[in-house]
């Protein structure tokens, strides 16, 4: 059926589609987004494992390219540190939460996820660089893990969509215990990376939040 026209020939939007059709379309979009998110996060973690294997097999130590605090040359490590780990045990500890939280963070859009990841990496890295003891080298993806946690929870507050709120509540309940990781504790664990990763995640959720349209006042 053709769309209705007014007396000036203006075409109006078609009538609302049946509820079943809208639900099917949303389900299809969500499934496609979930598949893309899963593939992207799996590739991200697989890349970290490939780098760690190369670090183990090849001569030299890749970890020297991490964040070296209070050293200008160590600033370059901000972008590299999340892909470097102090052994396979360190990488294994980060892999599962990174897969879960990264998937949930990417579920609502790859572009938003990539921008959020960049914000988290930069905020976490700068926080580590400024607050760690001078010339300490920090590596690992735990800043991303805490960042994705903060991002997913804060996204539910900023976007206020039903799906995001449900995901935020589920993540908060399942991973609430990691909050203690932002406090100084065990030697050799960068609580600074955890803390500033969490801060970066909240900032990222605000930066990429969905803007709501406002109607003009008359």
Automatic annotation (TrEMBL):
Q: What SUPFAM superfamilies does the entry give?
A: Rhomboid-like
Where is the protein situated, by its record's location annotation? Membrane
Domain named Peptidase S54 rhomboid is located at 78-210
The record describes its membrane topology as: Multi-pass membrane protein
Task: Quote the EC number.
Answer: 3.4.21.-
Mind listing the UniProt keywords for this protein, alphabetically?
Hydrolase, Membrane, Protease, Transmembrane, Transmembrane helix
The biological process GO terms on file are: proteolysis
Regions crossing the membrane: 30-51, 83-106, 113-130, 136-158, 165-183, 189-208
Q: Name one Pfam family in it.
A: Rhomboid
Principal location listed in the UniProt entry: membrane
- One GO MF term: peptidase activity
Gene3D superfamilies in UniProt: Rhomboid-like
Protein name, entry field: Rhomboid family intramembrane serine protease
Q: What is the lineage of its organism?
A: Bacteria, Bacillati, Actinomycetota, Actinomycetes, Streptosporangiales
């Amino acid at each position: 059926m053709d769309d209705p026209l007014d007396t000036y020939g203006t075409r109006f939007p078609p009538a609302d589609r049946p509820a079943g059709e809208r639900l099917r379309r949303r389900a299809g979009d969500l499934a496609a987004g979930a598949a893309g998110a899963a593939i992207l996060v799996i590739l991200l973690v697989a890349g970290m494992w490939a780098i760690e294997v190369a670090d183990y097999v090849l001569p030299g130590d890749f970890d020297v390219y991490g964040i070296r605090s209070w050293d200008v040359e160590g600033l370059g490590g901000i972008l590299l540190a999340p892909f470097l780990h102090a052994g396979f045990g360190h990488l294994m500890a980060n892999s599962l939460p990174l897969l879960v939280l990264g998937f949930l963070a990417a579920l609502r859009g790859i572009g938003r996820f990539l921008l959020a990841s960049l914000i988290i990496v930069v905020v976490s890295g700068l926080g580590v660089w400024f607050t760690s003891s001078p010339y300490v080298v920090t590596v690992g993806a735990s800043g991303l893990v805490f960042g994705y946690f903060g991002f997913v929870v804060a996204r539910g507050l900023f976007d206020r969509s039903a799906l995001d709120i449900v995901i935020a509540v589920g993540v908060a309940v399942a991973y609430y215990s990691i909050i203690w990781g932002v406090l100084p504790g065990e030697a050799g664990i960068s609580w600074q990376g955890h803390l500033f990763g969490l801060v970066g995640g909240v900032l990222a959720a605000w930066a990429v939040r969905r803007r709501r349209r406002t109607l003009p006042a008359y």
